[in-house]
Amino acid sequence: MNKRIYLDNAATTKISDEVFEYMLPYLKEAYGNPSSIYDFGEENKQTLLTARKSIARVLECEPQNIYFTSGGTESDNWALIGTAESRSELGRHIITTGIEHHAVVNTCRYLENRGYEVTYLKVDEQGRVDPLRLQRALRKDTILVSIMTANNEIGTIQPIEAIGRLLKNHPALFHTDAVQAFGHIPVLPEKWNVDLLSASGHKFHGPKGSGFLYVRDGIKLPPFLHGGKQERGLRAGTENVAAIAGMGKAAEIAGRAMRNRIQREASLRDYMIHRIETEIPFCRLNGPRKNRLSNNVNVSFEFVDGETIVILLDMEGICCSSGSACSAGQAVSSHVLKEIGLSDEIARGAIRFTLNEETTREDVDYTVERLKEVLDKNRKMNPLYLSFSQMNQKR
Ligand code: PLP
After folding, report:
1. How many angstroms separate the alpha carbon of residue 15 from the centre of ligand 1?
2. What are the contacts of 381-389 at 24+ separation with CB within 8 A?
């Protein structure tokens, strides 16, 4: 089996050829330490600045607002723990949602163990946060609101601008995890009144182990790593120049290609959803039809276990996920699907396909055909399905 159709781009993406070529010199000949004062090091200080500028251009902010990290998890940890630590005198209440990525959820749990109180906002059945619900949850001692820009499992895009407007007159900092959104939709922290924003290079065709945190002017976060003076003394350690350079290039490309990509992906996404819904019985789309990431298809199939279907599709050369790939391997059903009201059984039958700009109609057709076969075979081994479909036939 040589064919591989990669439909798990929310888990990670392929480094693009242009990014790869751009990174190569920094892995070999251009290895100078950006902190060194001779030219060979100084040149890499410029490399870091170029990457900072490329990212800032996409976010429509200034390069000094960008701090490099090792990825989305680190950015989320820094934003949440840094805010909690530096503002504990003002209050110890944090608001987030029940559908955040584990990088936020488990950081909140960590803070709860250290005496902070966390409100987990309920979302509707599409995974959408109602700003009014947030308004009601805000308190005088709320120091931080963390709401993701777009969900990694069901693709729901949150009304971040409306939330930012609401928070304008409240002293709480506003953090958004834009890991799945950056490069996929316009992400504009200054326009949205966002104070802190996380992103991850490997989600937009950059290298793994690269990420950044946007920090609005005037906000003072405590250092995340202690040591040297890198990242203006806030994140010590010799910079991963090649990865940062690659992420900067990937950001530049993502910003440039966004509009075309959204159109192309969204039409393929809708085609795939349409085929699945019309050709496969007993299924339901998870997440919204509108305000959904252009590459996300998440469907629950009744009478099957999603993990099993993922393994069977893998044997057909198709990579997809049965929930959040970051938590794959755990037998528990996704907290996101449970939060939008799915029963354990329906949540466990969920499969997520996430497309990219290179996905073709042929890839989608092949996937839907294999999916139909695999589901059919698998369901026929389920006595519940057999009696249910017999009952349906008799009617
Ligand atoms: N936040 C979201 C929404 C994610 O989807 C992910 C990864 O899937 C992360 C954070 C963690 O990012 P990273 O893998 O760069 O640590």
Report:
1. 16
2. 382/303, 382/304, 384/303, 385/302, 385/303, 388/303
